[in-house]
């Protein structure tokens, strides 16, 4: 059977790599893909948000399953177009994708479902938002652009002045474009972060193995927020008791509330959590697999991903309640372009990819790359997700950074402490 993966990042490279391993899959396409996906499968030059051309391609090629990777096409309704055409697609509808596409909508769903999260207010007028901040005590706040902002629309503020500046950036200076038409202001929470991802078919929820992302740009969680500088799986803090609580108090109530509103959720439901002293609280929902969390999670998945995603799309996830996982942990280190998460150059030739690919239990997933003649060059801020399995978390980290050392381009950099949190958590036990 043929599969189409929509998107062009590291998440999509991991998806095509894993789907290609299925005994049932004869061909995998990626639209539009990147240089790395082009090495593993066939790239198709169609934009991820061009629903008409994607549907036409899927019909003409007899695609058995389309997997939509990024949030933008989901929020734009690409999954709806496939469903309308009678094609099997994995990914939530436009209405369901509002959980990620609108932070205000997500918070209102959580409030209605009594899902634990920070108290919030939303504003469409900058003066009202600023007045709200000025009238509050000097406490930590988080200012969020309501719409999609490529992972950069959230500002964590320690002072009123920082919060007011963040409001002006979003609503007056329009730093995030129309995503800043509305802002959500919520109280700042503290505690370790955790990503819990689950497959949902409308009724059945099957959690994936836990992962922990590293959002801050620099070591020791310093610097500005990014789309993610690395991740590891599993997260030692995600014991079974915690996972059961997250499913019972967060995922199930959210899916039920959406159904109450007439929205059936099918796809990945990703809960970004903060483990506070009062228990797990939702920071945000995403409606797709995380990037870079997908890379270390799929490195560990032993079940047939094609079969599992087909079951989710068909409403038959109950047949896949227990997925098979490699017990070994995995670590993904993101290699980024100089200047990221700000402005960065493109077109820098990348060396050493072949050498890194020869290392055992290691896979270099491409995120922001392109092919220029014989060369693979940088084409994004987050360029590569170097991922490795290991006997324990320290071994997985060692293997991942061994591969990182093989790869070079002008201005390349990465965090040096990916997965150290896991090691620290294990030592505390």
List keywords for this structure.
alpha+beta; PRibGlycinamide_synth_N; ligase; 33% helix; five-stranded parallel beta sheet; 22 strands; 429 residues; five-stranded antiparallel beta sheet; Dna Ligase, domain 1; single chain; Rossmann fold; 4 domains; D-amino Acid Aminotransferase, Chain A, domain 1
How would you explain this protein's 3D organization?
Helices cover 33% and strands 26% of the residues. It has 429 residues and is of the alpha+beta class. α7 (103-113) crosses α10.
Concise account of the structure shown:
The protein is α+β, with helices and mostly antiparallel strands. The protein has 15 helices and 22 strands.
List strands and helices in order, with pairings.
Elements: E1 2-7, H1 10-19, E2 27-32, H2 35-40, E3 42-43, H3 51-61, E4 63-68, H4 71-76, H5 78-84, E5 89-90, H6 98-101, H7 103-113, E6 120-123, H8 126-134, E7 141-145, E8 154-157, H9 160-171, E9 183-187, E10 193-201, E11 205-207, E12 212-213, E13 216-218, E14 222-225, E15 230-233, H10 240-260, E16 266-276, E17 279-286, H11 294-300, H12 305-314, E18 330-336, H13 353-357, E19 362-366, E20 369-372, E21 375-378, E22 382-389, H14 393-404, H15 420-428
Parallel strand pairs: 1-2, 1-4, 2-3, 4-5
Antiparallel strand pairs: 6-9, 7-8, 7-9, 10-11, 10-16, 12-15, 13-14, 15-18, 16-17, 18-22, 19-22, 20-21
Helix pairs in contact: 1-11, 7-10, 8-9
